Amino acid sequence: MQSLKGILTENEEIAFMNILFSSSASIRSGNFGLSRKEVEKQLQIQGDDEGLTSFIKRVNQAVSRYFRVIYDERRDQVVALMRVPARAARNTLTKESLAILLYMFYQQEVLQHEFTLFDQLLNAFGHETTKANQRILLNIDPLKKIGAIEEYETNSHEKAYQLTAIGVHMFSDSFLRRTVEFSQSHQLNKEEVLKFFRRYNLYQKGENE
After folding, report:
1. Where are the beta strands (DSSP E) in the chain?
2. At CA 64, angle to CA 17 and CA 169, rounded to 5?
3. Of 97, 92, 89, 93, which Cα lies nearest the Cα of 136?
4. What count of other Cβ atoms lies within 10 Å of the Cβ of residue 75?
5. How many Å apart are CA 50 and CA 48, to the nearest integer?
6. In 85-165, at which residue ranges do the beta strands (DSSP E only) sit?
7. Do 148 and 163 meet the contact criterion of CB atoms below 8 Å apart?
8. Whole-angstrom distance, CA of residue 190 vs CA of residue 22
9. Considering the entire predicted model, what is its pTM?
């Protein structure tokens, strides 16, 4: 964190601290982060795409071990995500919640579905258990509380959910590698895993910038 002083201006440091504060679930439940307009105002770079991108990139270079700052285009918000060890993450999400999130990640980020129906979750996780509806809803609730998913309005009465930018960025590349290797029963290189999860092109783009 000390390296921030050599990378960010005073205004940028203040903006980053405000993003951290506003990204807390206990502070801004359901509305994580600061609006792009507010961040640009604090940085004094209104309407400057390159300025905002540079700010986010430099922050992430300095604090990548502990945090990751992302821009949520759909909500037009800048959000800070905290990196936590797997053991600590288990205190936030149950294995059932994590499985639901990974299922939705695969459907929406890999298969490019716009949303996931509740009935699809029920068929995937609950058809063999009693009170399946309640169990799935119980495990969806913490995902909504941490801002990983949100309800999606469809043209029917069916309940559906959509990943947020927070949900999309929750899985690290190393976690995805272990997940795919476990399902494929053999080791894969990073490029194969990222390509499988459609992060491959983004990864290459980032390298060429």
Report:
1. 34-35, 67-72, 77-82, 116-117, 149-152, 160-163
2. 90
3. 97
4. 18
5. 6
6. 116-117, 149-152, 160-163
7. yes
8. 33
9. 0.68
Q: Are 198 and 191 within 8 A, CB to CB?
A: no
Residue 165 and residue 68 in contact, taking contact as beta carbons nearer than 8 Å: no
Tokens of 14: 């203040």
What tokens were used for 123?
A: 């068929």
List the structure tokens of 100.
């639901």
Tokens of 101: 């999130």
Which residue reads 């609730």 in tokens? 141
Angle at 168 between CA 150 and CA 104, to 5 degrees: 65
Cα(91)–Cα(75) distance, integer angstroms: 27
Bridge partners (DSSP) listed for residue 70: 79
Mean pLDDT of the chain: 79
pLDDT tens digits, residue range 180-205? 666 665 565 656 656 666 654 444 44
**Phi, psi angle pair for 204, to nearest 5°:** -65, -40
Place of tokens 């092109």: 201
